[in-house]
Design brief:
The chain is built from 17 helices and twelve strands. The protein is an alpha/beta fold. The structure holds magnesium ion. Residues 149-151, 220 line the site of magnesium ion.
């Protein structure tokens, strides 16, 4: 039986790489549903190539354009997040690939979990914003989350060798991003174009900026906390510029199990889609004869304050990580537009998490309210009196 996929965010970086894996394994997978926010032309092209049954354009303004592009096909075209939420729960979906960007992935992810689906999750912001609700929903409905984020896929793979032994520590590797060796004064005047030049990974714009600030690594600490039920003080970030070791798990006897592969997202995507089997994904294999040195160093939270903000937000708990995520989404968008400087991202996040109304045990409604409040506070600071 082929596994039937719903790919949310199919026109983005993870979405297109997921379809690369499917293209190479048509005997294993079929695509039941794809969705995108705006990119109607690529979405229509994908729908035809993979003979997809249901296509959702999340931006309702684009519905007419997409309908026209697909009028001579068998695809059913839908618009809006509500349609997406009901379709992911459908009986003909086995695996939901969560590859939407940011907070927008939360609702469809929860719908998939409520329907007891396997969710291959790349959209870490869903766990950052609502980790307790997402993991509770997963447990209550016997759903499964398989990590697609390369570090978390690595940890998951290392844990398969744990044989039930308790994990002492998780070592989350970080490339350090494009500014790893830059002095603070130079980072302060970094442009979006410079931040978008990631040395190792091919990713979308949002996560690439988050990598340059190391907010991405901070979010990954929060993601690991929820996925692996591990307190944040036992999740250690280690800078490893080569991005060959994708993360490690340490046991009480000091033994450490690491997962290695060349930095290519198709490897964690393929493993999540085919788990527990392994399949070819077309990536470059590691050649130890030419690999050279692997290097490691501590993360520098003075030059990359977003990493500390993420740890602090987990310690404070409740809705604070949600507020951090919302402030960061607004600040990153403003940085990409050239409206604020690099360190303004961290400044805005700090102000928002200190100012937001605290909810210790947030309901889903509280999470949506926090997301709106924090985003509004961030937008206010950006436009306010030219402070930024
Ligand atoms: Mg990652």
């Amino acid at each position: 039986m082929k596994r039937r996929l719903a790919i949310l965010g199919s026109t983005g970086s993870i979405g297109t790489q997921t379809l690369d894996v499917v293209r190479a394994h048509r005997d294993l997978f079929e695509v039941e549903l794809i969705s995108a926010l705006n990119n109607t032309s690529l979405l229509a092209e994908q729908a035809r190539e993979f003979d997809v049954n249901n296509v959702v354009i999340c931006n309702p303004d684009k519905y007419q354009v997409l309908s026209r592009e697909l009028e001579n096909s068998d695809c059913k075209v839908f618009e809006g997040i509500d349609s997406l939420c009901s379709l992911v729960a459908g009986a003909n979906v086995d695996i939901v690939v969560g590859a939407m960007v940011g907070f927008s992935g939360l609702r469809p992810t929860l719908s998939a979990l409520e329907a007891g689906k396997i969710v291959a999750l790349a959209n870490k912001e869903t766990l950052v914003a609502a980790g307790s609700i997402v993991t509770r929903t997963m447990r209550e409905h016997n759903a499964v989350i398989l990590p697609v984020d390369s570090e978390h896929s690595a940890i998951f793979q290392c844990l398969l060798a744990a044989q039930g032994n308790p994990v002492e520590k998780i070592h989350l590797t970080a490339s350090g991003g494009p500014f790893r060796n830059w002095p603070k004064e130079q980072i302060a005047s970094a442009t979006a174009a410079q931040a978008l030049k990631h040395p190792n990974w091919k990713m979308g714009a949002k996560v690439t900026i988050d990598s340059s600030t190391m907010m991405n690594k901070g979010f990954e600490v929060i993601e690991a906390k929820w996925l692996f039920d591990m307190p944040a003080d036992r999740i250690n970030v280690v800078v490893h510029p080569e991005s060959v070791i994708h993360s490690m798990v340490e046991f009480e006897d000091g033994a450490i199990i690491a997962q290695l592969a060349s930095p290519d997202m198709r490897e964690p995507i393929g493993f999540a889609l085919s788990f527990p089997a392994r399949i070819t994904v077309g990536n470059k294999k590691i050649d130890f004869a030419t690999l050279g040195n692997l290097s490691f160093s501590a993360a520098d939270t003075d030059r990359f304050p977003c990493l500390s903000l993420a740890y602090e937000s987990i310690r404070r708990g409740g809705n604070i990580p949600c507020a951090l995520n919302a402030a960061n989404e607004v600040a990153v968008a403003a940085f990409l537009e050239g409206r604020i400087g690099f360190y303004d991202i961290a400044r805005i996040c700090r102000e928002v998490i200190d100012g937001v109304n605290f909810a210790e045990d947030p309901s889903l409604d509280d999470i949506f309210a926090t997301n709106d409040e924090a985003a509004a506070r961030a937008r206010e600071r950006i436009s306010d009196n030219g402070i930024y």
